[in-house]
Amino acid sequence: MTLETTGLSKAFGGVTALDGASVSFHQGEVNALIGPNGSGKTTYFNCVTGMIKPDGGTVSYQGRDLTGKAPHRIARAGIGRTFQLCRTFPRMTALENVLSAVPPTGLIGGLRSARGRAEIERAMGWLTRLGIEHLAGSEARDLSWGQQKLLELAGVLMAEPETVLLDEPAGGVNPALLDRIGVLIRELNAEGRTFVIVEHNMDLVMSISDHIVVFDRGRPIAEGPPSQIRTDERVLGAYLGV
Amino acid sequence: MPSGSKVLKLAAVALLAVAVLAFPSIAPNPYILSAGVLVVYYAVLATSWNFVGGFTGYISLGHGALAGLGAYSTGILVAKAGLPPFLALAAAGAFVGLLAVPIGLAALRVRGASFVIVSISLVLILLLVFQSWSSVTGGSRGLVVPRPFQLTRPEHHRIFYFLFAGLLALAVLAWWLIDRSRFGLGLKSIREDEDKAEALGTATYAYKLIVFVVSAVFTALAGGLYALWFGDLDPVFQFSILTGSYLVLMALLGGVRQLFGPVVGALIVGIALEFFKVEYGDTPLHLVATGLLLALVVLFMPDGVLPAIADLIKRFGRSDRTSIREVSAAELREQRLQNAGGTK
Ligand SMILES: Nc1ncnc2c1ncn2[C@@H]1O[C@H](COP(=O)(O)OP(=O)(O)O)[C@@H](O)[C@H]1O
Ligand SMILES: [Mg+2]
């Protein structure tokens, strides 16, 4: 009853990005997905969220088959994600960025004002929680890299996903922000959200994860709690190339 | 409590409305009046185009064909089926709206330059169809549409001027409604980053399709009204890529993010076109001029004249603020470069 894939595979031309990846993540926990560059982590996220159609295999979430579904349907099923290269809507304000994360359903809902009081309050709540409420009126393109990463996360959280996939949340952020992101993930997890985090910063991974899955060449080669992964020979081999 | 800028905006809109309504009374002769009709017709088309172009960022060069479909549908329903003119107009709007569903389903699958090319091919296909299907369309000899009113020429222009102005008001109102709505925010997120919008749960394909249909209906109504006004349809003019290009130029020139951007653009380009026609006749010269102008706008005023003017006013108003903004933008760029280096 969680996010699960069986035999997920994807090739780009001659490059095998995913090679029959069967993974099952733990509900309610902070899961980490680690592996060397090019081991297929981002492609895995893209297949799970419907951004890329897998060549084979299945994706299921809480018992529902999500294989090949449109990304917006998967998002509405409760899976939110961030992108490795941080995607925000550059020429929208930070507030509008967060507001656009709750798409309306139905015609009447669609014609309601985009600036409903309740939504604005909720959006400002997330901006405040991530410490960027003072930037609500600034366009996303004017924000620093770290602020954009926080903004992207605020948008994803606005949709209240049960499961959040983060692709390198610590990539390119300064040490102070890194700590804050770590604390935030633990807090959000304590409130009941499941996380799957792709991350290269091992200190962060080891300190916040409950469960780690290690990828190499498009498939999992090990999984377990941090204490076990730290000493796993196959993992060391994949990383150090021995 | 309306803010100062809101009052200013309302005043500007009121002024524009008064100017539009007063024009027929101050037009010195029927020729100028008919040029006015043409400009308002362009304003409706450009505003209709901007439902797709402005909100979603999809640049269609095919809207001329949607107008042509509206014109021919109206014309055929009046001339061949004997329907009352304005019933025919409404039916044509509904028909093109329905037809826009399969067209949109096909065209909106592709993005960027591919979409532009698909939209061009729509025009070419329809041109061929309407030229060869001459028993119904009149072929290259054209289709004569009976006038709806028995009036003198100036009166005829006057009435149609107000009909077009009414349609323009409707289109502007609809654009405004969508602009401030949650649906509109979703459309704008498609313009910004379509995949990201999908990932956030926006049904982008459905969104694009809905707004394409709305755009097509307004475009077709404008085309239909044109048929009733002009009274003579020729496939070469109705299904021309040039019309579509003019609309793009108008919208971009005025500003696609502005409610009145396409109207302002239509005013400038429409008047320029008429001027060219009078001065130089129907030469390919205005094609060159259009292309040049389009390039200049895209290069130097990517947001159009309206925002450029607003910027200018702001710059004079508080020069100190802009300079701070520029400094911080430079800092940001540097910071980003460092960050980009840091992720490696
Ligand atoms: N869109 C794409 N087109 C072609 N090759 C791709 C594409 N996306 C990923 N790849 C390739 O697939 C492999 C896995 O990439 P990726 O999933 O980004 O790995 P990771 O995120 O683990 O670094 C790499 O060899 C990469 O070059
Ligand atoms: Mg990656």
TrEMBL record, chain A:
<dbReference type="InterPro" id="IPR003593">
    <property type="entry name" value="AAA+_ATPase"/>
</dbReference>
<dbReference type="Pfam" id="PF12399">
    <property type="entry name" value="BCA_ABC_TP_C"/>
</dbReference>
<protein>
    <submittedName>
        <fullName>ABC transporter ATP-binding protein</fullName>
    </submittedName>
</protein>
<dbReference type="InterPro" id="IPR003439">
    <property type="entry name" value="ABC_transporter-like_ATP-bd"/>
</dbReference>
<feature type="domain" description="ABC transporter">
    <location>
        <begin position="3"/>
        <end position="242"/>
    </location>
</feature>
<dbReference type="Pfam" id="PF00005">
    <property type="entry name" value="ABC_tran"/>
</dbReference>
<dbReference type="InterPro" id="IPR051120">
    <property type="entry name" value="ABC_AA/LPS_Transport"/>
</dbReference>
<dbReference type="InterPro" id="IPR032823">
    <property type="entry name" value="BCA_ABC_TP_C"/>
</dbReference>
<dbReference type="GO" id="GO:0016887">
    <property type="term" value="F:ATP hydrolysis activity"/>
</dbReference>
<keyword id="KW-0547">Nucleotide-binding</keyword>
<dbReference type="GO" id="GO:0005524">
    <property type="term" value="F:ATP binding"/>
</dbReference>
<keyword id="KW-0067">ATP-binding</keyword>
<dbReference type="InterPro" id="IPR027417">
    <property type="entry name" value="P-loop_NTPase"/>
</dbReference>
<dbReference type="GO" id="GO:0005886">
    <property type="term" value="C:plasma membrane"/>
</dbReference>
<keyword id="KW-0813">Transport</keyword>
TrEMBL record, chain B:
<dbReference type="GO" id="GO:0015658">
    <property type="term" value="F:branched-chain amino acid transmembrane transporter activity"/>
</dbReference>
<feature type="transmembrane region" description="Helical">
    <location>
        <begin position="32"/>
        <end position="52"/>
    </location>
</feature>
<feature type="transmembrane region" description="Helical">
    <location>
        <begin position="59"/>
        <end position="79"/>
    </location>
</feature>
<dbReference type="Pfam" id="PF02653">
    <property type="entry name" value="BPD_transp_2"/>
</dbReference>
<protein>
    <submittedName>
        <fullName>Branched-chain amino acid ABC transporter permease</fullName>
    </submittedName>
</protein>
<dbReference type="InterPro" id="IPR043428">
    <property type="entry name" value="LivM-like"/>
</dbReference>
<feature type="transmembrane region" description="Helical">
    <location>
        <begin position="259"/>
        <end position="276"/>
    </location>
</feature>
<keyword id="KW-0472">Membrane</keyword>
<dbReference type="GO" id="GO:0005886">
    <property type="term" value="C:plasma membrane"/>
</dbReference>
<keyword id="KW-0812">Transmembrane</keyword>
<keyword id="KW-1133">Transmembrane helix</keyword>
<feature type="transmembrane region" description="Helical">
    <location>
        <begin position="159"/>
        <end position="178"/>
    </location>
</feature>
<feature type="transmembrane region" description="Helical">
    <location>
        <begin position="115"/>
        <end position="133"/>
    </location>
</feature>
<feature type="transmembrane region" description="Helical">
    <location>
        <begin position="288"/>
        <end position="313"/>
    </location>
</feature>
<feature type="transmembrane region" description="Helical">
    <location>
        <begin position="85"/>
        <end position="108"/>
    </location>
</feature>
<keyword id="KW-1003">Cell membrane</keyword>
<dbReference type="InterPro" id="IPR001851">
    <property type="entry name" value="ABC_transp_permease"/>
</dbReference>
<feature type="transmembrane region" description="Helical">
    <location>
        <begin position="209"/>
        <end position="229"/>
    </location>
</feature>
<feature type="transmembrane region" description="Helical">
    <location>
        <begin position="235"/>
        <end position="252"/>
    </location>
</feature>
